[in-house]
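User: Some background: our group keeps a shared notebook of sequences we're curious about, and every so often someone picks one and asks for a predicted structure to add to the entry. Today it's my turn. The entry only has the sequence so far, pasted here. Could you supply the structure so I can complete it?
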Amino acid sequence: MRFVDTNILLYSISTDPREATKADIARKILLSEDLSLSVQVLQEFFVQATRSSKPARLAHRDAASFVAKWLRFPVQEITVSIMQAAFASRERWQTSYWDAAIIEAARACGCRQVLSEDLNDGQDYGGVEVVNPFGSCKPAR
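Assistant: Of course. Here's the predicted structure to add to the notebook entry:
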């Protein structure tokens, strides 16, 4: 199983021409069946996709519809034990709490990889490795 971070979901709905390659990659990833995500990832997607400062923001109903569609994947709830594990991971790996919660949710799902542009590509967080699926893409200008 591979764990999907929020940026994969956000790129999958992007209509920005500068993000076309990343959008294609994200959409292909989401066709896979070996994916998991967490309530945190779904919440972050909803907040970022609907925020008022986003030029092409989604309407509430549309964002909620995407979230409902992604419920076909296993979704890890954020529990007290995951929160406590994230506290320990944050300290051990010197990451933000939110990144540590992603790592620990992935671990709880039994995922060996986290697909993310936001964490350190190739870094192993105690058996959970980060893979940046957009590593070959040129930065947007």
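Suggested note for the entry: The radius of gyration is 15 Å. The chain has one domain: 2-131.
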